[in-house]
Specification:
The complex is a heterodimer of chains A (806) and B (299).
Chain A (H helix, E strand, L loop, with lengths): L7 H8 L11 H4 L16 E7 L5 E7 L1 H5 L3 E5 L1 H4 L6 E3 L5 E3 L5 E2 L5 E7 L2 H10 L1 E6 L26 E2 L2 E2 L5 E8 L1 H10 L2 E12 L8 E7 L4 E6 L4 H12 L6 E4 L15 H13 L3 E4 L2 H7 L2 E13 L5 E11 L29 E8 L6 E3 L7 H19 L3 H8 L8 E2 L5 E2 L4 H12 L1 H16 L5 E11 L11 E2 L2 E2 L2 E7 L5 E5 L8 H13 L6 E5 L16 H28 L6 E3 L3 E4 L2 E7 H10 L10 E6 L8 E11 L5 E11 L6 H20 L31 E4 L17 H17 L14 H10 L5
Parallel strand pairs in A: 1-16, 14-15, 17-20, 18-19, 27-28, 34-35
Antiparallel strand pairs in A: 1-7, 2-6, 2-8, 3-7, 4-5, 9-10, 11-19, 12-17, 13-14, 13-16, 17-18, 21-22, 23-33, 24-25, 26-27, 26-32, 29-30, 30-31, 33-34
Chain B lengths: L6 E3 L4 H11 L3 E4 L5 H6 L7 E4 L9 E4 L6 E5 L4 H6 L1 H6 L1 H7 L5 H6 L2 H6 L7 H7 L3 E6 L2 E6 H4 E3 L2 E2 L6 E8 L6 E7 L9 E10 L2 E10 L6 E2 L1 H7 L6 H14 L10 H31 L1
Parallel strand pairs in B: 1-3, 2-3
Antiparallel strand pairs in B: 4-5, 5-10, 6-7, 6-10, 8-9, 11-12, 12-13, 13-14
Helix pairs in contact in B: 10-11, 11-12
Classes of the chains: A alpha+beta (806), B alpha+beta (299).
Chain lengths: 806, 299
């Protein structure tokens, strides 16, 4: 019985805990087409909803004639704002403290806005009926430029709040102005700028993008009129928050609402918000008494659900002549579309844009952000990044490269000179954050060595000489970025969404035979939580990951949590899992002590068991302890072995990374070939290296897309010109380059297992790295900065402007 | 993304198909591979009441070579898929330009279904095959109520989606005269990503003998509302030494023949520029190939 073989190492390996490249348990179903997504849900008598949408970006809705649609056999109902008004559901609150029309109330503010909701017996009838709803519009002048939106004589978009001087985030100075958010020390920053040796200035635009998850948004709402319970299956990244919001706006008691997120085919921030489709489906199910399904198509997803970015960042950066940065100034004009539906913590109307001092020790800084209404779709979500962090990181990483040009310095040298040093952590930034840990020099230097940075620069110089001799038409660009993320929102003291604190949770139930069910307040959309959370628990409670089932997404069973976005799952729910595991272990220790007839303090934890100190042959495994918890009457202890933890993080975590990319640009066609991409990520303690690598590849591929052409573009009339995957760039395996990944490990000092989160880092760091490389390719010709996306014709335009076409 | 209601027909012979087309009139639309029409129907930009699916018509399939007097030809059934074009060794030997271009169309999944007949008959200026067929001087056979007739590819396209095909006719076969043995060829296409239409593309077919160009043919894709057969460009190359002056003249002639429109792929100036770049590359590669093949034949 007391055989100590296998060894502790062998036993630890068997657990497949922290650090194990365990295969994803989810993939068995996904790779066999056995996932269960919203659109797989079929219920008896289920009806289908479809929207009549506005073809205009700005128009008054004169009338909506439903007669012809209602006359079509199989059409059950056509809802308009007039039908929702008696229920007070024609408007809904947004996550940003604004309100949004559920169905057009008197006017429309963006192309694709929801005007009427058709409910029919099948999808085909619904689509036919949509064509039969006759809407009379009166076109209004369109505003697509956020700067022109603030002109004194600009058309007033939001007539409902035109006279409201105070918004959710302070004073409004124009009917199209949403908020001004200011951080840092304006006077001190301006003083440094005025007396600086060198000041570099630029307008950095981060164009409007879209997360474009492969599965679009949708839901099935089912009101059971017998028991009064509403169940909604949907593509929700935050099911508990959706339940609370649904209760608040519908008046249905929260215990009578069940929100379920089944398998989700990617979210990337697009599925955080609440959309009119959800509200209309719920109302339609309440009215008809049968389940109602709504699933949007690709065009609807791209044109009407939440976009990302759309920031215009005016920057000034000051430095001494030898390259020591002395101040940073930024004014951002944020295009929010027709409604402010940003998914940020409520007290942060521009998210964590104030992480824009990046990885650098900048003594003084100033940031102001003006949110503006335009005739575009609402949104402003964190597209695979923490709230506005990609914007902030792109801004500072471009500004550093631009400053390097002004100083005639290598951009790497400038970075190394200004990095926050390892001995400065915890570091207090000029814009108010406390960076938990980091070692930027080590990471950067490791990457420079791996890619032979000096050799690359020599090769670039040779290529340039060959180009000038007319031997090649390709220029070589080298991009460097060093990003600092801020993830894991967040401490309840300053992070909430509509008043809901951004803690997260884990509930663990150990079954008598030593297997485990763990439930969390998060929801995987492809991140592999069922794999990685089981690994955290395996290491904490000594039970093999294969014996642990992780469940998420059902509000009837999971503990309350704020969901998955902003790389918060591991920093917050992962911490809750570790803390709940430690509660399990504490009780297990008492049970083991009683079983071994020793004092609690005489035991020590040994991988998967408690053993008597100095007598390792006397032990009880967690399997034995689990059974004892259910069949022994341990004096002073309740039976069973369960624990729950609600974890309120003391701080954010700050993952970082150093990236280098090398690309060849054909100056005649604008084609870009990424020939090397080296990504070093430091996400603190690493849970599953294989999943990390997969996450990095995915995030980098999104970065490639964003930089090289992914864009939600509007013409001057507010028409979306990139509403299908023909024009909206979604890379395939053909366009994705080869990636080399690497890591350093700097644990978070405040996280229970030292983990920081990684899923979004590659998007944050990848965008600036690639954009820097494109701009770098033309540096030798006096080029400073070109706005993204760097698609063929825009790159050609850079070359044309520099006279490279002869 | 749900099409309007329609009736579906699946005739087993060409005669049955043309009969259906005559009977159903302008409410009917012929369906080949469906990769242009079905997306249009899903967007409700097209709403035919009847779809006549040609996939069961065996006589519309296949690739055959005939070697007659005055030069042979290749005859391709309209329902032959892009994949089948790529897989045909016969075609690769006789008209390698087709495989080269077909490999640049969309992606493998589309090519398994997309057909050459649909591609040339639809009249979409973004399609690759129309320009290619003009370059090869192909002829299209049209079957209709009044029997069969032939129209040269170079005469077929009127404007976007408007062709010489009459409403009651079905484009049934494509006849391509065999290019001279040892000819040089190239299809150069700039596109934003896999699956995209060309930003600009150029097809070149030429022969080289004793360091001089014998004949040359040039066509361009997606640079006007029809494919562009640039006869003057070909003429500028034919008889020349294919040197810089001749190439410049050919490019100038081609650029004079195109009329690109601005879209998400770029402004007009960019398209004109890359049209020239694609054509230069195509001429260079075709010349290189013709020179190599001429050298091989000499050996």
């Amino acid at each position: 019985m007391n055989d100590q073989t296998p060894t502790a190492t062998e036993r630890a390996e068997k657990l497949q805990g922290l650090g194990c490249a365990r295969k994803r348990v989810e993939d068995a179903r996904f790779t066999q087409g056995k996932g269960n997504y919203v659109d797989d849900i079929k219920m008896p008598g289920m009806l289908f909803g479809d929207f009549v949408r506005s073809p205009y970006a700005h128009a008054r809705v004169i009338s909506v004639d439903k007669e012809a649609a209602l006359a079509l056999p199989g059409v059950v109902a056509v809802l308009t704002a007039a039908d929702l008004e008696p229920l007070n559901l024609h408007w809904m609150p947004t996550l940003a403290g604004d309100k949004q029309m559920v169905l057009a109330v008197g006017k429309v503010l963006f192309q694709g806005q929801e005007v009427a909701f058709v409910v029919a017996e099948d999808r085909y009838i619904a689509a036919d009926a949509v064509e039969l709803v006759e809407v009379e519009y009166e076109e209004l002048p369109v505003v697509v430029d956020p700067f022109k939106a603030l002109d004194p004589d600009a058309p007033v978009l939001r007539e409902d709040i035109a006279d409201q001087k105070e918004g959710a985030h302070g004073p409004r100075r124009h009917p199209n102005h949403i908020f001004t958010w200011e951080q840092g020390d304006e006077a001190a920053t301006n003083a440094v700028l005025a007396g600086a040796d060198v000041v570099a200035e630029a307008m950095i635009q981060y164009h409007r993008c879209h997360p474009c998850p492969l599965e679009t948004c949708g839901c099935v709402a089912s009101m059971d009129k017998i028991n009064g319970k509403l169940t909604v299956w949907g593509t929700f990244q935050a099911p508990h928050a959706v339940r609370t919001i649904a209760s608040l706006i519908s008046g249905i008691a929260e215990h009578n609402i069940r929100i379920v997120s089944p398998d989700i085919g990617g979210g990337f921030g697009n599925k955080v918000g609440v959309y009119p489709g959800y509200i209309c489906s719920i109302v339609a199910s309440i009215v008809t008494g049968v389940p109602v399904k709504w699933v949007e198509d690709r065009i609807e997803n791209l044109t009407a659900t939440a976009f990302a970015r759309d920031y215009w960042m005016q920057g000034k950066i000051a430095a001494t002549r030898d390259g020591k940065i002395t101040a940073l100034w930024c004014h951002t004009t944020a295009d929010h579309g027709g409604f402010d539906a940003c998914a940020d913590p409520t007290k942060f109307p521009a998210g964590f844009m104030n992480i824009c001092t990046g990885s650098y020790d900048i003594p003084v800084a100033w940031l102001s952000v003006d949110g503006v209404y335009t005739n575009k779709a609402p949104g402003g979500v964190a597209y695979r990044c923490s709230f506005r962090v990609t914007e902030a990181s792109y801004f500072i990483e471009r500004m550093i490269d631009i400053l390097a040009i002004k100083l005639d310095m290598d951009p790497v040298e400038l970075r190394l000179k200004n990095f926050i040093r390892a001995d400065q952590f915890p570091y207090h930034s000029a814009l108010g954050w406390e960076y938990d840990s980091g070692d930027y020099h080590t990471a950067m230097e490791k990457v420079l060595k791996a890619v032979d940075y000096d050799g690359l620069r020599r090769e670039q110089a040779e290529r340039l000489a060959a180009f000038k001799r007319g031997e090649t038409r390709k220029l070589m660009g080298i991009g460097v970025s060093h990003f600092t993320e801020i993830v894991g929102a967040g401490p309840v003291k300053n992070c909430d969404i509509l008043g809901l604190g951004m803690f997260d949770s884990c509930a663990i139930r150990i079954h008598p035979t030593g297997s485990v069910t763990a439930r969390l307040g998060t929801i995987s959309q492809g991140q592999g939580h069922a794999t990685t959370f089981a690994q955290i628990l395996a290491s904490e409670i000594g039970i093999p990951a294969d014996s642990i089932t992780v469940e998420e997404g059902d509000t009837d069973t999971a503990p309350y949590g704020l969901g998955t976005y902003g790389s918060r799952s591991t920093p917050v729910a992962g911490a809750a899992a570790a803390m709940a595991g430690r509660k399990i272990r504490a009780k297990a220790q008492m049970i083991a002590a009683w079983m071994l007839e020793v004092h609690d303090d005489d035991l020590e934890w040994d991988v998967d068991r408690f053993a008597v100190k100095g007598a390792p042959e006397r032990f009880k495994t967690m399997t034995e302890i689990a059974f004892a918890a259910y069949n022994q009457a341990v004096p002073g202890l309740e039976p069973g072995l369960e624990a729950v933890s609600y974890y309120d993080p003391p701080n954010m975590t700050y993952p970082f990374g150093a990236y280098v990319s090398v690309l060849d640009i054909d100056v005649d066609t604008g084609e870009v070939e990424i020939r090397r991409f080296y990504a070093l990520d430091d996400c603190g303690t690493r849970i599953n290296p294989m999943i990390i690598e997969g996450q990095v590849h995915g995030g980098l591929t999104e970065a490639v897309a964003i930089v090289l052409g992914q864009e939600i573009a509007y013409d001057e009339d507010g028409n979306v010109t990139t509403g299908t995957l023909m024009d909206f760039f979604l890379p395939t395996a053909v366009e994705a380059p080869h990636y080399e990944t690497d890591h350093t490990t700097t644990p978070s000092p405040h996280h229970p297992i030292g983990a920081k989160g990684v899923g979004e880092s590659p998007n944050v760091g990848g965008v600036s790295c690639l954009s820097n490389a494109v701009n770098d390719a033309f540096r030798a010709f006096g080029h400073v900065h070109a706005q993204m996306p760097h698609d063929h014709w825009r790159i050609w335009k850079i070359a044309e402007g520099l006279g490279l076409h002869g | 993304m749900i099409p309007a209601p329609f009736e579906y027909h699946r005739p087993a012979s060409l005669a049955e198909a043309t009969g259906l087309l005559a009977e159903l009139g302008e409410d009917a639309h012929v369906l080949a591979g469906g990769h242009s029409l079905i997306p249009m129907m899903k967007l409700r930009l097209a709403a035919p009441e009847h779809l006549i699916d040609l996939q069961d018509i065996a006589e519309l399939k296949g690739i055959a070579r005939t070697d007659g007097e005055g030069g042979g030809e290749i005859v391709i059934g309209a329902m032959t898929t892009q994949h089948e074009l790529i897989a045909s060794d016969e075609l690769a030997r006789a008209v390698p330009l087709i495989r080269e271009a077909a490999l640049q169309i969309a992606d493998p999944q589309v090519r398994y279904l997309g057909t050459i007949g649909g591609n040339v008959a639809n009249g979409d200026p973004g399609n690759d095959m129309p320009g290619l067929m003009q370059c090869l001087d192909a002829a299209f056979e049209l079957d209709g109520p009044n029997g069969r007739r032939r129209v040269a590819a170079r005469e077929f396209y009127r404007s976007a989606y408007v062709t010489a095909r009459e409403d009651g006719e079905i484009l049934s076969r494509i006849r391509i005269p065999l290019p001279a043995p040892g000819h040089g060829f190239a299809y150069e296409k700039l596109k934003r990503k896999i699956g995209d239409y060309a930003t600009a593309a150029a097809a070149v077919l030429l022969t080289v003998s004793g360091g001089r160009c014998g004949s040359a043919s040039v066509a361009l894709t997606n640079l006007a509302d029809t494919p562009v057969f640039a006869a003057d460009a070909g003429a500028a190359l034919a008889g020349s030494d294919l040197g810089a002056a001749a190439v410049d003249a050919a490019v100038a002639a081609a650029l004079a023949a195109i009329d690109p429109a601005a879209d998400n792929r770029g402004p007009v100036a960019f398209k004109q520029h890359v049209a020239g770049v694609m054509l230069r590359r195509a001429i260079a590669r075709a010349t290189e190939r013709a020179t190599e093949r001429a050298a091989e034949q000499t050996v």
